[in-house]
């Protein structure tokens, strides 16, 4: 045990020394060739080969991360442009019927949603009132519904939903979107587009 502790101590000292002296192998380049490392695919390789492989792996990882970020940026740009165009179309609507149609057609065509609804909740309707009070406690709900809730909101079963309350100035109104994909809406998803549409609807509905 004493020998093991001594060996571990020596290894830690060597590790700390190398970290503090990153130019060590520049002063002793022959060690780069002499040192050998085990490799799960290629057997034993030199330190130089191992370092090159690690660098290639890091480059590959960075390229994948950059590609992912570029895809996210393109998606965000697409959503921004769509939201801007839809907002102008909604502002041009002259009545509530036109607004409902424009909102529904725009979201369904762009994202393939199955249902888009503006639903007025009356306390006499206990099931809708329960959804209003409990499903949308924090103003938003993303995820799955029960079969009964789906049929009450959309008239049929759906995969996943995004629900939000409009402001009290509009009464008790639920803005609801449904997708056939059970995984499309999920609890931790970003709500930026949804919240922007909610604010616009809050502004427009009292004018009709």
From TrEMBL:
Pfam families: DUF484. Keywords: Coiled coil. Residues 45-79 form a coiled coil. It comes from the Bacteria. InterPro entries: DUF484 (IPR007435), GAF-like_dom_sf (IPR029016). Gene3D superfamilies: 3.30.450.40. This is DUF484 family protein.
